[in-house]
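Troubleshooting: if your tokenizer reports a length mismatch, compare your output against this known-good record of 412 residues.
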Amino acid sequence: MSLQHTLETAATALLALSDESVFYGFSKGYNDIARDKDKNGGGLYCVGEVVFNTAMTGYQEILTDPSYHSQIIVFTQPHIGNVGATSLDEEADKIFSRGMVARKISDHYSNWRATQSLPTYLKQRQMIAIDGIDTRKLTRHLRQQGALNGCIMVLPPPVAADETQRADAAKKAIAYAQEFSGLGGAMLAENASTTQSFEWDTCEWQQSGDKYKAAGEAQRRVTILDCGVKKNILCALTERGCHVTVLPYTADYQMLKASNPDGVLISNGPGDPEPCENARTLVRQLMNDNIPLFGLCLGHQIVASALGAKTEKMKFGHHGANHPVQEQKSGHVFITSQNHGFAVQTDSLPPQVRVTYRSLFDGTLQGIAADHPPLITFQGHPEASPGPKDAAVLFNQFVGLIDQHKQAHAQA
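Known-good structure output:
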């Protein structure tokens, strides 16, 4: 009997891709089949775009990153869950990714901050997960074919034990994957955004005292258009003396101006930038007012498209915490955290815009800047949650841009 056949007969879950590839494994997340048996006639499943993430740490920050809305994450790190889970490491108040795939999801953990195991955390948040997958084979497949739509299906005991029923379940899962519309043209930023505006006054985490730092006196006001913002982006700004106001994606120009911003950040978020016309219109109005702008990830794409640039879907995107990005002016290389499936086409940028950063993996555009209107953007996640802190200097640059603009106005 082959190893593959042995795995199939023991499987409690499967991952099916839209190209009809099927991988068998074990359910390690939410599996309350009795409660959700109506979802597929006796099973439990999730669908999304399947992408691989090369980060070695920070799985909890990745799972709760709103930019992963409607995606199934394949972790290339073979052991996930070794340090357990804690609510302190969440980037949002819920999990936005659709599902999780790993070689091994650990039931045991060892970390002084952890409060529960990762499988327990996933079950409490109704997150479907599968392990026992050959993630090296799966990742190579996604690199060759590009990001594919997929379906993770939890197999009820009668289905898992019967070869014919397993084959029928795999066919159903393939059909669900093929029916998923994908992320191209998907407007997801509004779904990942807050519905109510709020103020933020918490600084970055400090290990000493096991708590977040208290905010000092704010010297500048920053308003964030929330397209799916991460908690630690807010903390990074507060840490640098900013009073932070977060507005929902649906905010209009009058609502944003009422927050009296010295600068505006267009946040990270999920989906295709092309349908984000509300945000693009708002950015153009801010440009007319000459208000300093900072675009991050999806926000980078929105700002660039507001300037007239075009965006495109990438083959398999950038997802990980080890991506080298080069600053064009100095040649300095940052190792960065990335999570995006769309990119701005460099040759579509208007002449007044400078290219500031490029990926050393594939040469794609990673950042732009302009003087009129004053703006900077970055395709990655400089708050380093998870990932290295190399690019955190971008927050300093944004604060400097605001201060320079305020000083110029004061002297005028």
